[in-house]
Amino acid sequence: MPFPVTFLHKLKRHPARTAIVLVALIVAGYFGYKSFGPKVDSTIKTAVVTKKNIVQSLQLSGKVVPEKTMVITAQQSGRIVALDVKEGAKVGAGDLLFTMQLEASGQTDLMQMRSEVRTLEQSLNSASRLVKNKNLVKDLIGIDQVAKEESDVEKLKIELVSARERLAVVEANLGLNAKTPKAQTGQEKNSGIVFVRAPTAGIVTLVDKRPGDFVMGGAGLGTGASNPAEIGGSNERMVMVVADMDKLQVRTKVMETDLRFVKKGQPVKIRLDAYPDVSYEGKVEQIGGQGRAEQKAGYTYFDTYVAIDQRDSRLLPEMNATVDLIFAQQDNALTLPLSSVLMLPTKSYVRIADAKDSKGYKFIPIQTGSVSATDVQILSGLKEGDIVQEIDFSSPQIFDPLNEKNGAEASADQKAAAK
């Protein structure tokens, strides 16, 4: 109903009143719309379709391990006299690790070899002096006689070199070297005491014996490189393990179902639980050639080693590590957060606002592609800048697309039956 003419004339004569009336009408209209218009849930969060790089990766857990470890043993049997290092100690090449007393048979062998070398040295000295003296009177005794004596000297030299080489090998296996103090060297010769030293710099990761323990000698485990995964448990010949810290790895497990994503040489990012804000570059170095079964869990995995490119004094054996392995990347792709996409076995859906629907929203089908830890690639059904609503996955609303699909199929069946 139109306003009375007299009322409109009064408004024209009083502009201030006119402004007040207009403001009042606007406010009344706003509250009327809020009261009687369609209900909009202001708590609903939205997401915008944006372009970004979407990265697909595997996240693997593992332990920091050295690529090489030295299993320290003695090549002859004896008893541990003293341990000069503890687990976790940093050692340099040639540092004293432990002292042992050789058993009687070991002492005898070592003493006999040293005695043989000393005897050959004495024989060579005597023969050399004899040749020197005979050379002075070679005109009297004959050149042939002097030549024979010189030949004998050369044979003694060869025998001495061979004996010294054999002795050097035995002493090296027992950890004896020129760095041993003279007082200790004399003690070794007289009582069979052996000082075993570190063959390389590193960290003592395991001490398997105590003073008084007997250590078996002989070939076998020996001192040398060994796969860290194979060292474990007590061994009658192993005394300790020294880890070479020059090159470190992360030992991790790759599930059988994920093995197709892992390739040798793939770049990775490595993070440590101890230093979560620090990341290291690395690459896949070795993939196990045989699967291992986890009987209780019922799955098969492959041991995989990832090399750590950087050297850092904070990196220590057995630290917990996380490896992020990127196996695919889509650049400049349309994406939405995972929380905004309902992915079903055969189709995916998003929820958009719809004022005509009694619920205020509806689900529309879309086609999805790659999926990362946070985002989903949108292949069709939406364009850049489109706004969708986040989905409450604990709400019955996630069944709406199924109900709508079933209803559409039922309607189609009814139409077909009517024809």
Write the layout of secondary structure elements.
Layout: H1 5-13, H2 15-36, E1 46-48, E2 50-72, E3 78-83, E4 90-91, E5 96-102, H3 104-136, H4 138-141, H5 143-173, H6 182-191, E6 193-197, E7 202-207, E8 214-215, E9 225-226, E10 240-255, E11 267-272, E12 279-287, E13 292-294, E14 299-308, E15 320-337, E16 342-343, E17 348-353, E18 361-371, E19 375-380, E20 387-389, H7 400-418
Antiparallel strand pairs: 1-20, 2-9, 2-10, 2-15, 3-5, 3-8, 4-7, 5-6, 7-10, 10-14, 11-12, 11-15, 12-14, 13-14, 15-19, 16-17, 17-18, 18-19
Helix pairs in contact: 3-5
Q: How far apart are the first and last residues' alpha carbons, in Å?
A: 52 Å
Query: How many helices in DSSP terms?
Result: 7
Low-confidence blocks of residues: 36-40, 178-190, 220-233, 409-418
Share in helix: 25-40%
Radius of gyration: 42 Å
